[in-house]
Amino acid sequence: MVMSxxxxxxxxxxxxxxxTGCHALAIYDTLFSLDSKLRxxxxxxxxxxxxxxxxxxxxxxxxxxxxxxGTLVTAADCVASIRRWAQVDSGGKLIMExxxxxxxxxxxxxxIALKEPLGLxxxxxxxxxxxxxxxxxxxAVRPATDQVTENIGSGPFKFNAALAKPGASFxxxxxxxxxxxxxxADGFAGGKVVKVDRAxxxxxxxxQTALAALQAGEIDFLQGLPGxxxxxxxxxxxxxxQILNSGGYVQCLRxxxxxxxxxxxxxxxAMLHLIDQEAFLRVTASDPKFGHVVTSIFGNDxxxxxxxxxxxxxxxxxxxxAKQLFREAGYAGxxxxxxxxxxxxxxxxxxxxxxxxxxxIGINVExxxxxxxxxxxxxxxxxxxxxxxWSIFITDDTNVSLSSPISQIFLSANGEExxxxxxxxxxxxxxxxxxxxxxxxxxxxxxxxxxxRAWWDFxxxxxxxxxxxxxxRRKTLTxxxxxxxxxxxxxxxxxx
Length: 496
What we know:
Elements (H helix, E strand, L loop, with lengths): L17 H10 L4 E3 L5 E3 L2 E6 L5 E6 L13 H11 L4 H9 E8 L2 E6 L6 H6 L10 H4 L16 E3 L9 E6 L23 E5 L4 H9 L5 E2 L7 H6 L3 E4 L6 E7 L9 H10 L2 H8 L6 E2 L26 H10 L7 E6 L3 H16 L4 E6 L1 H7 L13 E7 L27 H7 L8 H18 L3 E6 L3 E4 L2 E2 L15 E2 L1
Helix pairs in contact: 8-10, 13-14
């Protein structure tokens, strides 16, 4: 398998990178998992109940849960894992704000006792920014800012550390001790039955080289293929394109709101007017049927998608308005550094188009090329570009995840406590805080409009379009699980 990006960070509580999430999906298990209809279903939990006053959840682990080192999974492990995950995840932080106590009752049972009811609790445990991996207690007691050093989970695959070749390949072996649930596989839920003995991730940065390897049968699966190579796949009788994530992804431009020029709201608003989404989709989606304009912070065709405060959108963009807003922001030629991940074609192409668009309106731009692993290490730097910082990077997340503003990383504006870019708006955050206690769908729709108006006013980020990106595989590789997520499960797949 050739995944989209190179695995350089292994701890899913330390980063939200998709490649790390795929790694975590293989080796770690979770308390609950999303099914194909995006409903939470028990995974490590065998049974659970809620007290009459709706303030105490009791969870009992199912039988057969064993860590890769041979020790039994306990409730204490899960309590420590929840607490560590909640240090960084927005949904987890809300749980901790409402929690009176999270503690074990016995080796298989633990409780989450709340100060007040929180009907969204199970949803918050699955619709997350950070993969809610259950880890051994001795790993989970580490601060979230301190990476776990051993890849020991209880999931369906074991990480083969002896065969790991950083920068080249990583190997995952079937966990012979894993006991799947009895239900059939359904999204991330159900029985995680592994049908291959080993899965190897080869790091092939060049798309043409990766495609040649797929055609030659040297690899079976290819993610992140640029759209201009789709016709090659479609013309090869041994290969096929498959859409695993039917909702697709929304590409997002994140600006460093702590440093010039984007610490000024006018400069961020300038980016809204500058972006020509159709142009970006031509270099990221290639085929028109795979790309769509998106102007709602809640994505396209979602329950809370709306048209509030979208007057800035103009076909072709508005470079003159962007130039004027940069002037009003007091832009004085400061260098704008765009992080360019050269091993992810769509992000790399979009970064180059963005640099060109900015230069045309007189902005001093520098591209900083690296692989994706290098980008995710650099984006943690909050300092100025002169000290190794950055100004802009491009990323994406699933369209469907934008319907969950509590847990969605793009939809927080809590400054340095938030996600990379660190936008801040007290007005917006006060609105977002109301989401968990808004009871009816209609009330959440009305709240969504208020949130969207506030978001586009302070321009917390900028969307570049929605892309449905198929993966390429050999036809002999079957059983790929389809779910609206940017993570790829490796259970259920087999080679015929």
